[in-house]
Amino acid sequence: GDLVGLDNLVANTAYLRAQQIDRDALRKQRHSLTLPKLKKSSALQAAVGQKYESLCEQQPIGRKLFQQFLLSSDPQCQAAAEFLEELSHWIFAEDEAREKAKQSILATFCHPESRRFLSYLTGEDAERCKHLSDENFNEVVMDQIREATRNFLRGKPFSEYLKSPFFYRFLQWKEYEKQKINDKYFYEFRTLGKGGFGEVCAVQVKHTGQMYACKKLDKRCLKKKSGERLALLEKQILEKVNSLFIVNLAYAYDNTTHLCLVMDLMNGGDLRFHIYKLGERGICMERVVYYTAQITTGILHLHSMDIVYRDMKPENVLLDGKGQCRLSDLGLAVELPKGKMVCQKAGTTGYMAPEILRQEYYRTSVDWWALGCSIYEMVAARLPFKDFREKVQNDEVTRRTLEDECKFEHKRFDAPTKDIISRFLKRKVEHRLGCRGGDPRSHMFFKNINFHRLEAGLLDPPWMPKSNVVYAKDTDEFTDTSEVHDVELNAKDEKFFKEFSTGAVSIRWQQEMIDSGVFDDAFIVSITSLSHLDRPK
Ligand code: ADP
Ligand code: MG
Ligand code: MG
């Protein structure tokens, strides 16, 4: 009765307060980090690899240190670093700011007399740069100059970076990144949801204040239901993806009872909840378009890595505290190397494409069909071939999916929405939007979305969750956790758990170090000699 209500209130209060943590206050309390001294930096260097893209572009700390190296290097390197920075301003800016960024690029980098002239360019690229003007300044030309700049950096600057103190500092961060993770690394807060093998709760990294969601998989339960291989697959796919529109993995570790996946915290509820439980049924069109743009970008990211999601539905799309959405629950996702297909039946009734239902071979096409169903559901609060709460056999849904016409009876369907749904719901894969040529992002439905800005996280969400509301069921609704006792774990299981528990995931972890200020605080000495590096104070 009242006590249960009180438990829930206490749990919610602690959880909400943790999210409002004052990062500056935490910074003052924290001891500044002393990075480990490297005993065998050559071995680590080999493990880290030699790829420019990974070391200098994809990994956030690597990117920062490479940039610092360039700025402290010769004028050509400085110009290249500053140019890339200004170029990204121009790409993401709009209106006046974009015009300003363009004028600044022209004035700073394109005049042979300028101190920042891109003098490393050769041949056609050099000509292009010298003759840039108001009229011929466009994305195609700028792409060419950017590629030429990257090619320059990949050469001598990169090989000098690898010999510099900046790279030694990077290796120290990599060593620190390998630290063992356990329960003590986090504070734990309330349960947010429940899955097939355990619960998902909110956690906070103690020394950075960063909030995450932790999906716990009961080891014995996994073994009993033979879910071990699937759990590992889900983890391996999660750690590969790096997108603003997919729930990314930050840590994978285990304790005596559970495997833990620590992921982006999505505290704004799932889209199914927003369609059916809040206010009038369905979501307003401005939000439908915005979410669909983010979902589409997330799906394209998965497909670019030959991953089929197979569980696209509003219930699996979660909102974060700002109102941006991400795809979650990659438990059904599979990686299909080029040219390979599957015919396994997988998905949720009502969202499965005809080719799955007919048990034919398929690739990524099934996600676009399911997206069509999901857009329909966001607008009409029902599925194209199944009414809300309709009691109907799966066979009948299959029959309707294969034979019936999709009807748009709800008054909120406008012409572009009907058109994009109809194109996603083409039964023939070769006619379906997203499958053969044709980019879904160029459809009229998205006419108000600037995908450049969306992908950079710069497009403000049309709706924001309230910061004092917990968009999850009350805690007492999750209490039923039946533990499994009749299963023994053996050496083979332990070996598997070890394979799973790889600790921090590079990109996400490095971003956490930067966002929380740990990176800057550990870097308060200027890099002049290696002996200074070991003891930042
Ligand atoms: P399962 O694969 O076992 O179904 P899910 O990944 O779907 O597990 O997670 C179960 C539930 O936990 C979800 O329905 C959702 O309510 C909640 N949840 C999952 N991931 C997150 C997250 N990143 N942030 C917040 N809540 C989450
Ligand atoms: Mg789920
Ligand atoms: Mg799952």
TrEMBL record:
GO molecular function list: ATP binding; rhodopsin kinase activity
InterPro entries: AGC-kinase_C (IPR000961), GPCR_kinase (IPR000239), Kinase-like_dom_sf (IPR011009), Prot_kinase_dom (IPR000719), Protein_kinase_ATP_BS (IPR017441), RGS (IPR016137), RGS_sf (IPR036305), RGS_subdomain_2 (IPR044926)
Ligand binding (ATP): 215
GO biological process, one term: regulation of signal transduction
EC number(s) from the headed UniProt entry: 2.7.11.-
Location of the active site: 311
Pfam families, sorted: Pkinase, RGS
Domain Protein kinase residues, every copy: 186-446
Residue ranges occupied by any RGS domain in the UniProt entry: 58-171
GO CC, any one term: cytoplasm
Keywords, comma-separated and alphabetical: ATP-binding, Kinase, Nucleotide-binding, Phosphoprotein, Serine/threonine-protein kinase, Transferase
Residues in AGC-kinase C-terminal domain copies: 447-512
Family of this protein: Belongs to the protein kinase superfamily. AGC Ser/Thr protein kinase family. GPRK subfamily.
Record's protein name: G protein-coupled receptor kinase
